[in-house]
Design goal:
By secondary structure, the protein is an alpha+beta fold. Helix content is 28%, strand content 37%.
């Protein structure tokens, strides 16, 4: 029995240049590692993009790829973090068939997963959801009985969780805030 490979988040800050992006993606491709997700977007710095890649492989392979990326012209920073130590989210747009008889059940399912209705048509709804990848998969399975017509998912985006020492110094708690339910009197 083979154990599943751990997932690693590789975040690359690179110059906002098509050639730098092409080189970085080429290095990832040539390593022939199993890619779970790829996402590209702007960073907090002007002229710098953030390439986030989630890989399912061993640490040695990820470290070799990260070292190769660090040597590349146009790469400013490379960080490798186990996915278990990251806050990971995906974004999805989902087109669902809807009939008047099933509308209440569909809206309950949408509310359960904290999704939102973006557009409404006569026999379809377009939903928007942001969640951890397993929860997004669970939402899609819950919507299957209603008739999922189309799905578009972004790649995973991830940030490392702060260390307990870093959080204490900054005055913020290391644990995520608990959700508080409030009852509204009738």
């Amino acid at each position: 029995m083979t154990l599943p490979q751990p997932s690693w988040v590789v975040a690359v800050l690179l110059e906002d240049d098509l050639l730098a992006l092409n080189r970085a993606v080429g290095i990832v491709r040539r390593r022939n590692l199993p890619i779970v997700s790829v996402s590209l977007g702007p960073s907090t710095r002007v002229g710098v993009s953030r390439l986030t890649t989630v890989l399912a492989t061993d640490q040695a392979s990820v470290d070799r790829m990260a070292n190769q990326l660090r040597k590349m012209v146009g790469v400013l920073e490379v960080t490798v973090t186990p996915e278990a130590e990251c806050i990971t989210r995906e974004h999805a747009l989902i087109r669902v068939r809807v009939s008047p008889a099933e509308l209440a059940g569909l809206l309950d399912t949408i509310a359960l997963y904290q999704a939102a209705v973006v557009e409404e048509y006569a026999h379809e709804l377009v939903l928007e959801a942001t969640a951890a990848p397993p929860i997004l998969v669970s939402l899609l399975r819950a919507l299957e009985p209603f008739g999922v017509l189309d799905v578009v998912r972004s790649g995973a985006i991830a940030l490392p969780r702060p260390d307990a020492d870093d959080s204490a110094a900054g005055g913020r708690a290391a644990q995520p805030a608990a959700r508080v339910a409030t009852a509204i009197p009738a």
